[in-house]
From TrEMBL:
This is Phosphoribosyltransferase. GO terms for molecular function: glycosyltransferase activity. Residues 31-197 form the Phosphoribosyltransferase domain. It comes from Gluconacetobacter dulcium. Keywords: Glycosyltransferase, Transferase. The lineage of its organism: Bacteria, Pseudomonadati, Pseudomonadota, Alphaproteobacteria, Acetobacterales. Pfam families: Pribosyltran. InterPro entries: PRTase-like, PRTase_dom.
Length: 236
């Protein structure tokens, strides 16, 4: 349980509603909301619901440091040619071998494959080209995962790329400003301890939760999501 002084949101749903309110000016351009599973899905669903927008998934996995999995030194984004972003300085200083990185990447690719098969089998991603795209997660820590996600989306030429998160440290936000056209971050607490510390209730989002919210998103846009909400395997 996080300490009271750190709590900003009751849960991901409340955070998503607050984020949706901050993004209401984009409702008229019919944006595409891309959620980073699994934690970003409940937040993104509320944003999409409030904006009357389509929602899709952007599969991205953190590449965690050996023995310190919570510290991400890179990330991999799904696609025909997966986008991999590494913190080269950290890799060099920590002495992480190419073989170790390859093993971690293979493990994360396997988890992406599992999620894709489970969440959105036989469904095509919603195209981002020429669209206003809002990339949503439940928060940012180091920013490495989000950097990879934004770069992957940018390569597909959206009309405008927006990063939207409830909470993140100021230094991480600063490093991401060149990766997108706009950042909406509701809070940048100092000091910053962890994303989960900013929520009163921060349970793990289960596969069943993702599937349920995707079905609800499909029901909100039956004409746009033929066959159900898609998975955004970015064609890099």
């Amino acid at each position: 349980m996080p300490t009271d002084h750190a709590i900003l949101f009751r849960n991901r749903q409340e955070a998503g509603q607050a984020l949706g309110t901050a993004l209401l000016s984009l409702a008229s351009v019919h944006p595409l909301v891309l959620a980073l599973p699994r934690g970003g899905v409940p937040v993104a669903f509320e944003v999409a619901r409030m904006l009357g927008a389509e929602m899709d998934l952007l599969f991205v996995r953190k590449i965690g440091s050996p023995g310190r999995e919570e510290y991400g030194f890179g990330a991999i984004v799904d696609g025909a040619d997966p986008q991999i972003v590494l913190d080269d300085a950290y890799v060099r200083d920590a002495g992480i071998s190419a073989e170790t990185i390859g093993t971690i990447v293979d493990r994360q690719r396997a988890e992406i494959d599992r999620q894709r098969r489970l969440y959105a089998p036989d469904r095509q991603p919603v195209p981002v080209t020429g669209r206003v795209v809002i990339v949503v997660d439940d928060g940012i820590a180091t920013g490495g995962t989000m950097r990879a996600a934004l770069r992957a989306v940018r390569k597909n030429h959206p009309a405008r790329l927006v990063l939207a998160v409830p909470v993140a440290p100021a230094d991480s936000i600063a490093t991401l400003r060149t990766e997108c056209d706009r950042i909406v971050c509701l809070s940048q607490p100092q000091p910053f301890f962890a994303v989960g510390a900013c929520y009163r209730d921060f349970p793990q989002v289960e596969d069943a939760d993702v599937i349920r919210l995707l079905a609800q998103a499909r029901d909100l846009h039956p004409g746009h999501m033929t066959g159900g909400a898609g998975s955004h395997s970015v064609p890099l």
